Structure formats: structure tokens, C-alpha cells
Amino acid sequence: MKQAEVIDIQTIQDTSLPEITMLPLPSQEELAAQERAEKERKEILKRYRLILRHARPRLKEGDAKKIKKAFEIALEAHKDVRRKSGEPYIYHPLEVARIVVDEMGLGATSIVCALLHDVVEDTEMELKDIEGQFGTKIAKIIDGLTKIKDASDKSLSMQAENFKKMLLTISEDIRVVFIKIADRLHNMRTLESMPRDKQLKIKSETEYVYAPLAHRLGLYTIKSELEDLCLKFSDSATYHAIEDKIKKTQAARDRFIKEFIKPIEEALHRYNFNFTIKSRLKSIFSIWNKMQKQGIPFEEVYDLFAIRVIVDVPLEEEKAACWRIYSIITDFYQPNPNRLRDWISFPKSTGYESLHVTVMSNIGQWVEVQIRTKRMDDIAEMGLAAHWKYKEKNGVSNHESGIEEWLKKVRETLEQNDVNALEFLDEFRRNLFTEEVYVFTPKGDLKTLPMGATILDFAFEIHTEVGARCLGAKVNQRLVPLNYRLKSGDQVEILTSTKIKANEDWLKLVVTTKARNKIREYIKEGKKEIIKEGKEIVMRKLKQMKLAFSHEVLLQLLDYFNSKSESEFFYAVGKGTIDHTLIKKFQDKSEEEKVNRTLPQPNTDVFKADKKTGKKELKEIVIGRQGDKIAYSLSQCCNPIPGDEIFGIVTVSKGIKIHRTNCPNAVNIMASFGDRIIKARWADDKSQVFDVTLKIIGTDRLGLVSDVTRVISNQLKVNITSLSFEVHAGVFEGTISLSVYDTKQADDMTEQLNKIEGVVKVTRYNY
């Protein structure tokens, strides 16, 4: 082998070397960014593959390709976008798609729409592009999921317009609402990264619309989580306090449940049932709600959990199997006959079926046991989505009527599309988000109506003509008036008369959309007759005045009486609202004699006074700041004082109203008028005092009122503006109105008053 030649590097001239461009080494930040990008790429693929794996049993030929195409489009559309949390935006549509698959049981079309649900709204892609690649059906669903850019009526709420658009899709394709709920669920799960004002707005929308809608669609698990998250972001201290107490009592609860179900399990095995037994813990929101309604501490909420027995049997054996299991359970534990709920014979309108029985345990504790089949449990967990899965598999079931009836009512509500968005949303909530009553006709037919329904609602449910001629009714053989509110179990016989006509007063007595719409139709027909009569009166008066019944004269009349249209003017004359004798005087054209029958147009620009400063919008209002030129007022429904968390709502004609974030009207306001909400905070200023009212409850004793006033006036040096006490059976209840600087002073006062002998509870009263 030839010996390698030794080269002395020192002898080589620099000029003999080729030029080499030295690239700088990547910095630590660049290396970290590359590492993060690679980690995120792997995470995105992992999430996408998980969706495909879980959806595979429901996919048909070609579905996987369609989902892949949607994923690639979404990935490209959102590639440079990040969420408030700092995560890649694509995580959001991927998670919505996973919820749609895992928690709702939907298929390929819903997955595609979930992946694309923000593409049209947030990128340059248009609906026609979606339609070209995926077809009309998917394009329509995406359209339903896309927010409206501008409200049709600038004086109304953008939120309400968007809710209306979403809800109008229910009768066409209910998957829009399922995907929207999945979208909201993920947004609520990741709400931590949003600023406080956005948290409250999103929380309010969820509480006002999405949680009730999830409940109505039978998505009980999702509904419970949404409610829990609403409580978490509105009152985190209470949420975490209940959460901690649940954890601390978990071990004792597990031991109790194990002992309780042991004899039931053994018996069901002996009878060869294919079953599962699990416990269901009451949601944190439900626990809090019960504590609030009953005024009890956590320790006194005894129904923290329920036992669920799920049996797998053929459809035709379901009812017999559930009642057989009921018999087995009540052999071991004494049932409470007043707490039996048979949702199998009478399913809820959401399709929910189950047999609920409350039994006494061996240690004297009441326990609710829910008995259901595998099919019933799927519907209870996934609602309408599971219902249609079983409908396709088994054909029409006997228990379908509730769901079909609810969808029929949805369509009736949606038919009323001529009202503004706020009225529409209010109507929808009133009819479809309320609890129900179950009443019977004289022949024993069951009718389901919303809670609060009256005789008139029932009459219009039977038949339009029966409703229009309703004189009254017999309920359980007893005569009742039109405003009687029905209760479950009532048997109702409607009494009619040809002399009765539907009138405007009836609108105050009904709650269902069907009754309201039919009454309006009758009123509209009656209005035509009144307009005709009014027109004839005007023609006669003009003839007496020797004036022609011309377009020019009519315009002068409309101007004189401030009427918007001829029909409005003729109707007012026909009804007698405009005295026809005044028509003779209209020629005088005296401004002082004009009849002002319409409200002035609202001033929608509440910031006109600020235009000199060049500001186009107000981002935040500081309450109590000296020299603040913005017109605002403190709302009387919650009486906010410094220290309270607050927000502002830009009203149409009354400037800015300041509310507490826990005001009883806050959820409604923020959900309906989110585009008019502005941030508000208190100035650090103690030159002003504010009114606050405290409610005091306790046991009566001699000298109690004297002690209360002494603590407030002498010890705390606070001015009392009014004082009221009442005593019933040794229990006193009183209200004290005071002038304070802030919540700290009010809280200190509450703490001191609670120390007085006999005082049980002191709370802020004005909310």
C-alpha cells in the first residue's frame, strides 16, 4: 500500500483555498422555535389520526378522503394563526371535530364541517369554494356556522342576529347546532386564556343559549359541563370550594356505593342479566344551584350522586327488563312511592327514557337509582344523535313521538321569522328551553306543553278554531278562567262560544308560539276590518269639509297626526285612538295642536359628545373619575357600588348603564347585546357614597334592632337611610339601606352584623 503523502498545512498559501461561505449557527431561540414547530406538527397529526381512528366504524367509502381534504384545507387556512393561549389555531377545529365524534357520535359530514367551521369566517375562502369541493349540503352547514358580519337592524344586537341565524337551521339540518355546541364547549374549556370581559361575555352566551340548547338536544353530559364551566368563570371561589369538598368526601362515598350495589350485582348475576352498574356524581353547578334554592350548605345536599343500572336487552324486551330490575332492587331497599319517575312509559320530549326510583339504604340515606337499557343510556348521553342512530337501525320506535313533537314545535317557532332577532330569541327560549307539563284531554290523550302554559295554549294545541272561540275550561271537572296555568296530570275540557273572538289581551295569557301566532292572525284579520271602517270615517269627514279624498290631503293628515302610514292612521281612527272630530281642525297646521303618537327615533350614537376628541369608540369607562364627560347611570336592578365587578351596556336612548357582573340581568344582557358591552371599572375615589341595602334574617329577641343600629351607626360610623323589620313566629326579617363608599365597607358591615346574637344571615339585597 502506498504511504499517504504528508502535507504541511503551513506551506499552503491562503490564495490556493476556495472561498467558503460560513453560515452562522442557529441561535438558541431559533433552535427552540424549530423544536416547537416539529413538536406541534407531530401533535397536529396525532390529533387528526385520533379523529379518523375513532370515527372509522361510522365511515362509508370515500369519507376518509373527504375528511383528509377538509383537514388539509383547514391546516393551510389557519397555518399562521395562533389562539390567545399561544397554541396553533388548527388545534381548535381538530378538537371540535373530536368532540363531534367522541362526545356526540356524529359522522363524516359533521367532521368535515367541524374542521372547516371557521375557514369562511376567518380567511379569504368563500362558501362557493366550499360548495365546489364538498357539495351543497356541507356548504349550507358551514353557512349556518358562519357569523353574520353586520346586523340587519343597527339598533339591535349582533349576537341575537347570529343566534337567530343558527337556530333557523334546526329544521333544515340540526347538525349545525350540534357543531356549534361542540365549538362552544371547546371555547369554554379553553376560556382561561381570554381577558376577563371576554370570559364574562362568552360565559353569559353559554348560560343563556348553549347550555339550555344542549339540554334540549339531550346532550346532558355536555350541558352539565357547560354549566359547571359557567360557574367556574363567574364565581371561581364557590366553584373550587365545592370541588374541594367533593374530593374530600370521595373515599367515604366510594365505600358507601360499593356496599350499596353489592346485593344488587349478586342478584342480577343470578338472573343472568347482561348489565353495568355505575354511579353518577351530581355536577358542581347542580350542587350549587340546590344550595342556593334551598338555602343549605354543601353538607346538607344528600343526593350528591345517583346509581345507574344499565342492562343490554333487545328493544322488545326493554320495558319488562327495567321493571324486573326495579322489582329486584326494591326487594333489598324500601322505595319512596312519591319519588318514582317513569320516563319509559312517558319519555321526555328530548327522547330521554329511564326508570327513576329513590330507595332507603341500610344506613337511612335516600339513594336515587336510574334503571335503563343500553339504547336508553346512549340516547341519554348523546341525545338526538343517538336517537337517529337507533332509528336507522331498528326503524320507527314507539317512543319517537316526544322528539318528533319537539321538532314540530321548533318548526312552528321558526315559522315566525318576521320578528326581530331579540324577540325571536326570547320566543325560542320561552317555548323550547322551559320545563314541561303533561296534561290530558277528556278522552285521555296526552299533550305536552311548556311550563306556565294556560288554558288558551291548550285550546290552540287542540285546534285553531277551538282556541279562537275559547270561553274557559273545566280542569279536573272544575271551572277555571283563561289565565289558569296548567299542572302535570290535569285533565282539561275546553268550553267554547261562537260569541268569543281572539283579542290582543290574549297575547298576555299565552306562552306557546303556536297560540301566539294564531292569535296574531285573528287580530290581523280583525285589524283589516277596523282599517276599512276608519277609512270610511275619514272619507265622510273630508266630504263634510268639502275636501277631496286625495293622496296630497292624506299626506297632510299623516303629517298632522304623526302617523307613519295610511293603514296606521285609518286603524287609529277606526279604533277611536284618534278622535275623528279632530280631523276638522287639521287644516290649521298648528304645531302646538299636533298629536304626537309615536316615540322619537332613539339616539343610537351615545358618544356624540366625544367626537371633538377624535375618538370613534369607547373602550373602557371609569366610574367616578372627575371630569368624565360620558353619560352613565348605575342600574337599579343590582345597585353596583365601588368594589363590585362591573360592566357597561350602551343603551339605545339612555346612555351607558352600569351593572354588576353578577346582576340577575347580566347573563341576558351580555348574551343578547355582547357587541354593546364595554369594560368598566371604578376610579380610586372615596368622595362619593353609594346606596346599598342589606337583608337580615334571624331569631327575634328584645333589643335586637337597637343592637343592629348601634353597630352600624356608632361602631362602623355608617349613615342609615332607611330601616324595616318584620317578625313572624319568632323569626325576624329586615332590610337596612345605607350609604357606603365601597364593597369593603359593606362587607365589613356584613361581618360585624353576623356577630350579633340572634342574627343568622346577612346578604346584599339589591340583586
UniProtKB/TrEMBL annotation:
<dbReference type="GO" id="GO:0015969">
    <property type="term" value="P:guanosine tetraphosphate metabolic process"/>
</dbReference>
<dbReference type="InterPro" id="IPR043519">
    <property type="entry name" value="NT_sf"/>
</dbReference>
<dbReference type="Pfam" id="PF19296">
    <property type="entry name" value="RelA_AH_RIS"/>
</dbReference>
<dbReference type="InterPro" id="IPR045865">
    <property type="entry name" value="ACT-like_dom_sf"/>
</dbReference>
<dbReference type="InterPro" id="IPR004811">
    <property type="entry name" value="RelA/Spo_fam"/>
</dbReference>
<dbReference type="Pfam" id="PF13291">
    <property type="entry name" value="ACT_4"/>
</dbReference>
<dbReference type="GO" id="GO:0016301">
    <property type="term" value="F:kinase activity"/>
</dbReference>
<dbReference type="Pfam" id="PF04607">
    <property type="entry name" value="RelA_SpoT"/>
</dbReference>
<dbReference type="InterPro" id="IPR012676">
    <property type="entry name" value="TGS-like"/>
</dbReference>
<dbReference type="InterPro" id="IPR007685">
    <property type="entry name" value="RelA_SpoT"/>
</dbReference>
<dbReference type="InterPro" id="IPR033655">
    <property type="entry name" value="TGS_RelA/SpoT"/>
</dbReference>
<dbReference type="InterPro" id="IPR045600">
    <property type="entry name" value="RelA/SpoT_AH_RIS"/>
</dbReference>
<dbReference type="GO" id="GO:0005886">
    <property type="term" value="C:plasma membrane"/>
</dbReference>
<protein>
    <submittedName>
        <fullName>GTP pyrophosphokinase</fullName>
    </submittedName>
</protein>
<comment type="similarity">
    <text>Belongs to the relA/spoT family.</text>
</comment>
<dbReference type="InterPro" id="IPR003607">
    <property type="entry name" value="HD/PDEase_dom"/>
</dbReference>
<dbReference type="InterPro" id="IPR002912">
    <property type="entry name" value="ACT_dom"/>
</dbReference>
<dbReference type="InterPro" id="IPR012675">
    <property type="entry name" value="Beta-grasp_dom_sf"/>
</dbReference>
<dbReference type="Pfam" id="PF13328">
    <property type="entry name" value="HD_4"/>
</dbReference>
<feature type="domain" description="TGS">
    <location>
        <begin position="435"/>
        <end position="496"/>
    </location>
</feature>
<comment type="function">
    <text>In eubacteria ppGpp (guanosine 3'-diphosphate 5'-diphosphate) is a mediator of the stringent response that coordinates a variety of cellular activities in response to changes in nutritional abundance.</text>
</comment>
<keyword id="KW-0808">Transferase</keyword>
<dbReference type="Pfam" id="PF02824">
    <property type="entry name" value="TGS"/>
</dbReference>
<dbReference type="InterPro" id="IPR004095">
    <property type="entry name" value="TGS"/>
</dbReference>
<keyword id="KW-0418">Kinase</keyword>
